[in-house]
Amino acid sequence: MSTPREATPFAVFREEFCRNRVAVIALGVVAIIGVIALLAPWITPQNPYDLSKLSLADARRPPGFVGSGGYVHWLGTDAQGRDLFSAILYGLRISIQIGVMAGAIAFTLGATLGAFAAYAGGRVEALIMRVIDLQLSFPAILLALVLAAVLGQGKWPLIAALVTAQYAYFARTAHGAASAERSKEYVEAALSTPLSPRRVVFRHILPNCLPPLIVVATVQIASAIALEATLSFLGLGLPVSEPSLGMLIANGFQYMLSGRYWISIYPGIALIFLIVAINLVGDQIRDQLNPRLRR
Amino acid sequence: MSGTMRNPLLEVTDLVTEFATRKGILRAVDKVSFAIEAGEIVGLVGESGSGKSVTGFSILGLIDPPGRIAGGSVRLGGRELVGLPPAQLRAIRGKAISMVFQDPSATLNPVLTIGTQMHLAIAAHEKTSEAAARARAAEVLARVGIPDARSRLDAHPHQFSGGMRQRVAIAIALLNRPSLIICDEPTTALDVSIQAQILAEMKALARDLGTAMIWISHDLATVSSLARRILVMYAGRIIEQGPVADVLRHPRHPYTAGLIASLPANAEPGRELRQIPGATPSLFDLPPGCAFAPRCAFSSAACAQAPALHHAGPRGWRCHHPRGMEEAR
Amino acid sequence: MLGFVIQRLAQALIVMLVISMLVFAGVHAIGNPIDLLISPDATQAIRAEAIRAYGLDQPLWKQYLDFLGRLLSGDFGRSFVYNMPVLQLIGSRLPATAELALSAVIGATLLGVPLGIYAGYRPESLFSRLVMALSILGFSVPTFWIGLVLIFTFAVQLGWFPAGGRGETVSLFGVEWSFLTLNGLTHLFLPALNLSLFKFAMMVRLARAGTRETMLTDTVRFARAAGESEWTILSRHVLRLIAIPIVTVFGLELGSTLAFAVVTETIFSWPGLGKLIIDSISSLDRPVMAAYLMLVSFFFILINFAVDIAYAALDPRLRARRAA
Q: Is the domain of B287 the same as that of B201?
């Protein structure tokens, strides 16, 4: 049905998105968390990585305690005497950083591989996709677990483990979208012109695969963040000197049984806010892009 | 027209079906009225988007939200169907009125056997034993021309050809011996040769079983070979109705005239097919008055007022400038 | 069908071979076990002797072939830490993980699928929104954190359930099971709940998405036009139509539950395979790691194989294509 004034696809998309209030709020939460994590060094009362600022006298204090620094620990302190509020913001920073980096690398790698497979066709495609399918049938967490153990602790080994565990989802999606795109007439038409095949892939096929890839990206960034926390919790993630949210939670676990819940609970709540918000946004985008729900 | 029928099987009066969309309320069926006698075959013709399918679904009460029947009445044998509680409406669907859809590969459940699907359709209306249901299913399958019907009951839809699949769907519609079948373009998705076969068979079946039929189609030629009476829809309204032969020979509404002129059979050899200029209007911004006026060669200032229904014997039309009146006189 | 099965079997064999190489390489990369095996103040001679005894002086490909040969003869080696045959060690831990994973996946499916179908059938209702909110939480919240909250709430604060361990077990067919005693069940409940939340969320979402799409199809319209009741439509048509992805996911999730059991078992001190692998990673117990990974891979390939067969059995269209 034609409308009198054609709106751009993006404007239509935005309008539709804004009609889901939950998704809008979720997007707001993601933005707020992103901003405060980015500004952490300037808005936290303490640098939790600076061991000289920590005092064991402040350790394991409940929320509201006024420590030796002279300010209120609104969320309490952990076993090293870190202000939890500061530690959580710094932890969010690390979590987001790793999640986004792993997601971006996995996106680039996976989408390129998947689109290439669809473009190459034949045996190359069959082989690549068989490997991808196989990898997808293994749970990402196990793969990441083994890789994290093999590669050792640190930011880059962790990112490498996450990328290996996740690129296959992007490859699968890109391949599906690209093969559907490739069989369409406009690509046939573009391929029959003297345009270079690479140009066809990058200018025509990939842009059309973007919507499903974006959906996968939101889900994968959320799951990368969760996975990082899980690995850190199991002691296979980041070094102890820069505690991520997962490690804060892991460190607080032993004190939970004695009722000192805050060390584990508050970092967990921060983590959940972030992941749930990202997933809610992703859900809405997916529903909007699902052609089978349209009539 | 409807006034002349003494005991209509189905009587639709001022039916209005609307869909609430983001851009506002969309009136897909706008005050549609017609009646059908028992055993009669009526063609309902229009372009896609003219509201002909929605009319069919409205009769069955199968309008899902955000759509709703906003007004009018549908009477089956004198019984009002609009506003009937869901359970009572369900008892009528598939029993008194059934429906066949356009694409049999989409309507039949791909993961259930034909026998199971037919059993479910029977069990929806009566308690029968599995064996009795199978026997009846096989009988009806044979009736619609499926060879070796009994053993085919255990087959899945994908094991049938397109034409055979549509026969199965027709058999399901016939299972409970309905007095009316609504056929929503059931041959459009099929090969031309099979189309003709199924058309002929449906005609014979309807005659033998005394079943009335509403044949919804965009194809004037198909309808004219099948129906006795024709209703032409445009932008949600019935704009012309009457006996098929009469309407084809002397269309009153310029839109009907355009449709007939654009039939390939009516084209002069070597000349382009004639088309109706312009495009179907969006239901969101219909012109006030006659919806066809912007495309009509005969429109005048009068067309800014919606034309009322004019009657002349079995004929009816909504137009301020009906065609061919001189010849008829 | 037979050709299909044989083809899949051949593929599975190749995959297992590739995995054995990866596992070997991976395990090889995780630290040098010799430092753990002999005391740090041993002489160079003793050290060299030990290296020779474990075959660690051989070239890598030779070590791999030895490893493969031993695997094929069913010899997975001895655990450095527990000093017992790895196979026996794993065998003693397997039932605990199996009962945990099975009760989690079955519980999640039995509860998640009906709720998901309802949420897809009436997406606008309050109850459906509640179910979806719950599933988004279950999908998003990391398993380990839920485990902590469960322990804190139900074990520490309320004291309704024990915080860890397996509780009393009963021997059945020579294997110890927890789910047959009341005490064992109370121990099983929290970890199983913890492990099932993610699967539950997954099942709900899957069933909801499938139902929403199916409800818009002509198949459902046609069934409605035939006068079939909404219950018949949901239980006979929709359930069968969405069964294919659900069975697939059920199978795959059964496998991935093994992986997630690592987390749950660590939190609840559940003496299963997951805890074993985490312990062996931190203690560099190479034979246990290798055997665990091979076993889990084998499991996965078996499950994939079974899912493929189930697919063919559930989808008559696929069956026909493969028979041809």
A: yes
- Any idea where the domains of chain A sit in the sequence? 19-46+79-293
Q: Quick check: C324 pLDDT over 50? A: no
Is B32 a domain residue? no
- Give residues with Cβ within 8 angstroms of A227, minimum separation 6: A140, A141, A144, A162, A165
In this structure, the answer to whether residues B324 and B263 fall within a common structural domain is: yes
Convert the pLDDT of each residue in B238-297 to its tens digit: 889 999 888 888 888 888 888 888 777 776 667 666 777 777 777 777 777 888 888 888
Q: Residue B91: inside a domain, yes or no?
A: yes
Question: How many structural domains compose chain B?
Answer: 2
Interface residues from chain B to A (CB-CB < 8 Å): 23, 49, 282-285
Query: Which residues in chain C have Cβ-Cβ distances shorter than 8 Å to A271?
Result: 142, 145
Do B224 and B321 fall into the same domain?
Answer: yes
List, in order, residues 6 or more apart from B1 with CB less than 8 Å away. B34, B35, B241, B242, B311, B314, B315, B316
Task: Give contacts of C293 with chain A, Cβ < 8 Å.
Answer: 146
With respect to residue B29, please indicate whether it lies within any of the assigned structural domains.
no
Residues from chain B that touch C322, judged by Cβ atoms under 8 A, are none
Residue C319 backbone phi and psi in degrees, to 5: -55, -45
- Together in a domain, B164 and B104: yes
Residue C287 is which amino acid? P
| C147, closest residue in chain A (CA to CA) | A253
Most confident of A110-124, A231-245, B153-167: B153-167
Single pTM value for the model: 0.78
- Number of C-beta neighbours around residue A61 at 10 A: 19
Neighbours of chain C (3+ CB pairs under 8 A): A, B
Whether residue B312 is found in the same domain as residue B186: yes
Interface-testing mutation among A1, A12, A20, with chain B (most B C-beta atoms within 10 A): A1
CATH of the domain at B89: 3.40.50.300
Of B177, B203, B228, the one marking the end of a domain is B177
Buried-exposed string B294-313: b where 16+ CB fall within 10 A, e elsewhere: ebbeebeeebeebbebeeee
- Residues of A whose CB is below 8 A from B49: 1
Residues B115 and B254 grouped into a single domain = no
Q: What is the pLDDT of residues C14-55, one digit of tens each?
A: 888 888 888 888 777 766 666 666 666 777 777 777 777 767
Which of C28, C33, C26 minimizes the C-alpha distance to C81? Answer: C33
Query: Taking Cα atoms as reference points, which of B288, B290, B286 lies closest to residue B308?
Result: B290
C-alpha–C-alpha distance, residues C70 and B44, integer Å: 77
Answer whether A222's CB lies under 8 Å from C136's CB. no
Same domain, B274 and B292: yes
Domain's final residue, options B177, B196, B212: B177
How far are the Cα atoms of B167, C57, C74, C282 from residue C77, in angstroms, in the given order?
A: 66, 17, 9, 19
Q: Please give the residue range of the domain that contains residue B303.
A: 39-65+84-96+182-328
Residue A20 has a CB neighbour count (10 Å cut-off) of: 17
In this predicted complex, what is the ipTM? 0.87
- Reported for C181-188, long-range contacts at CB under 8 A and 24+ positions apart, including other chains, are C186/C161, C186/C162, C187/C161, C187/C162, C188/C99, C188/C100, C188/C103
Decide if B23 is inside a domain. no
Inter-chain CB proximity B121 and C315 less than 8 Å: no
Tokens of C114: 């009906």
Return the pLDDT at A4.
45
pLDDT given at position C231: 92
User: What are B321's two structure tokens?
Assistant: 């400038």
- With both helix axes pointing from N to C terminus, report the angle between C143-150 and A206-233 in degrees, rounded to the nearest 10: 40
Instruction: Assign C92 a pLDDT band (cuts: 50, 70, 90).
Output: confident
Q: Beta-carbon neighbour count of residue A154 at 10 Å?
A: 14
- Locate the chain A residue with the closest alpha carbon to B64: A295
A19-46+79-293: in CATH 1.10.3720.10: yes
Using alpha carbons, select from B233, B248, B216 the residue that is nearest to residue B318. B233
